[in-house]
Amino acid sequence: MSGARDEILARLASAPAAEAAPVERVPPPTMPADPEAVIAARLGQNGGILVANADRSDWPDHVDLPTPLADFEHVHCPGGLALPALGITRRGVGAHARTVHDLAPLDLCVLEAGFTVVENGASWHVPSSSLERAAALLAEHLVILSPRSALVPSLHDAYARIALRETGFGWFLSGPSKTADIEQALVLGAHGPRTMHLVLLDDE
Amino acid sequence: MGHVERARAFVANADRTTWHDEALWFVRAKRDAAADTVPDWEALRDEAAGIKRDVLGRLPELWQRFEAEATAAGARVHWARDAAEHNRIVHGLLAEHDVRRVVKSKSMLTEECGLNPHLEARGIEIVDTDLGERIVQLRNEPPSHIIMPAIHLKRGEIGELFHDEMGAPEGLDDPDALTALARQDLRGRFLGAEAGITGVNFAVAETGSFVVVTNEGNADLGTALPRLHIACVGLEKIVPRASDLAPFLRLLARSATGQPITTYTSHFRGPRAKETDDGPAPELHIVVVDNGRSRLLAEPAFREALACIRCGACLNTCPVYRRSGGHSYGSTVPGPIGSVLAPSHDPARHAELPHACSLCGSCSDVCPVRVPLHHQLLTWRSHLAEAGHHPRRRRLAFRLAAGVLSNPVLYERVTRIGRWLARRLPQDLLDRLGGPWSRSRAMPRIPERSFHQALRAREEGEGR
Asked: B340 and B306 share a domain?
């Protein structure tokens, strides 16, 4: 194997050098006047729904699903948040799963994102476990809670906040699982969640 | 068989050609609208092109750093000189883990290497999980587009396929219903898979991480469930720093489909954590593949093609691609970028591709990393001609033309005869000489005097 490695590196090293030129960095965009309107529009392009006019105590009322959030049978939600008061607790396979495969029938997954990028409506999330990572994909419905105080204008600012070297797995999420592979017709719920709500939460 | 011959069947159906043309132009229009939302779009393209130029100048250093970081994070890095070695490594890993069932997300690299047939011949079931790729896999044909693999198919054809393969009711052609069927079928395959294979959009040298983007979340499901993840990456896919991801990710989805970002933009570093303390440990293997990339790097005229981030914008905008379909190229990657890459792999087989181009330059205008595509296509034409890859008729025609055009006396005589003839031939015969060009145009009337003669006469008149 090391034969291949050394040979490839030698091939690359023997290529004629191109002229080096300094890379001109683009100044990152600034925060738009109405960031939440931009998030709603960009998220909407990817099939996600923004819930901005809600607070910690009433946001589930603004998440419009066929079943009220409190009534789903199989739910995964973060341990740290005070969600039980809203009737949202880990239950069903969301509470009992020991392996990722146990999670298959999950109805709802609630995640806590670190921050949200205004220019594309995506939220940065680092799963707390392999189970949470799978839950976000296997659930029929996805709700992401993100602090309203943590909005960044663009991906440039986003990467300034992310310590990628200390992150095993992290992702930007910007909507439900979707496809347009059949005649360019947008279909939500290709493999994973059929709906995705982003809830911007006020600080206490 | 060249591009023209392969395009013939597709072009014969004018309705389909028009439909295909319009579908792709619609995507191009979405790309324009998305680019318009970014005030510094052109500067962003410069930045991305600059980063790639820098990267191509120090690939050995970057890959060694990546290898060290990825290994420290618990991944294993493998190196493959060519497609055969890549396939051997992947099969070896699967065999070592007794894997029979694999799910794979979209990867043009594994397509290029012919991984699927290699594994299938060895008794391993490999399922493409991107819906478009699954469709073409079931039809036993290659993708016709790098990000919309089934763009050449109509819903009715996909309905028929699903009727045969997944028991869809006859005549079903609703995209929602068809997608729901595929979802159900694929969900079972995700849960049953023992390994997930993905491509890589960007590898980050300083962190040993890599990024995979999808809208369906299929790469994510395929790596969140099985314990073995194999990521296959081409040598050109590396960037130095995490902060370099920003310009590329801002450009990629906007250029590809007009989206502000893909739905899933996943950053992997090392294998997944164990689910339980006593459970088996997931593994991550990264296969770094050359397969002709170092050769392209050594070609100053073409090395910039290695900057390509596979967004597909050059396909969507190309008037030839839009009207001839992806399969007419006969190469893994079709369209302008494919026509630049393919002759480097096999000049004799792909010598015609640089001619499947009107040199309109639209590809170069939309390329997010400023690959000078149409210049490279023109350069390929002369390289391939010099290497003797032109068909005999064209070689003869060019030799004749060169002889006439380089000799003013001969040129004068030949054009005089030509004009004399052209003024006496009936118009309908002249039009037939114009071939397809004159299908909707009339050959112009040939003037009595050549430009030279007219100019001379005018100068003499003025002199008097």
From this structure: yes
- Asked, for residue A179, whether it belongs to a domain, the answer is yes
**Domain count across chain A:** 1
Instruction: Note whether residue B245 is domain-resident.
Output: yes
pLDDT tens digits for range A80-137: 666 888 889 999 999 999 999 999 999 999 999 999 999 999 999 999 999 999 999 9
Expressed as residue numbers, the domain containing A94 is: 35-201
Residues 6+ apart with CB under 8 A from B161: B135, B138, B139
The reported pLDDT for the residue numbered A80 is: 66
Q: What is the pTM of this model?
A: 0.94
| 343-382 in chain B: CB under 8 A from chain A | none
Tell me whether B219 touches chain A (CB under 8 Å). no
- Assembly ipTM: 0.97
Question: CB-CB: which of B37, B57, B263 is closest to A177?
Answer: B263
Interatomic CA distance for residues B172 and B179, integer angstroms: 11
The answer to whether B203 contacts chain A (CB < 8 Å) is no
To the nearest whole Å, the CA of B85 is away from the closest chain A CA by 9
**Residues spanned by the domain of B145:** 38-291
Q: Tell me whether B260 touches chain A (CB under 8 Å).
A: yes
> Is A24 within a domain?
no
Number of structural domains (chain B) is: 3
CB of B300 within 8 Å of a chain A CB? The answer is yes
Same domain, B133 and B220: yes
Query: What are the start-end ranges of the E strands in chain A?
Result: 49-51, 75-76, 108-112, 115-117, 123-125, 141-147, 151-152, 169-173, 178-179, 187-188, 195-201
pLDDT averaged over 10-residue windows placed end to end, chain B, 464 residues:
90 95 98 96 97 96 98 98 98 98 96 97 98 98 97 97 96 97 98 98 98 98 98 98 98 98 98 89 98 96 97 98 97 97 95 96 98 98 92 89 94 91 85 78 83 89 66
* Rounded-to-integer distance, Cα B122 and Cα A82, Å: 52
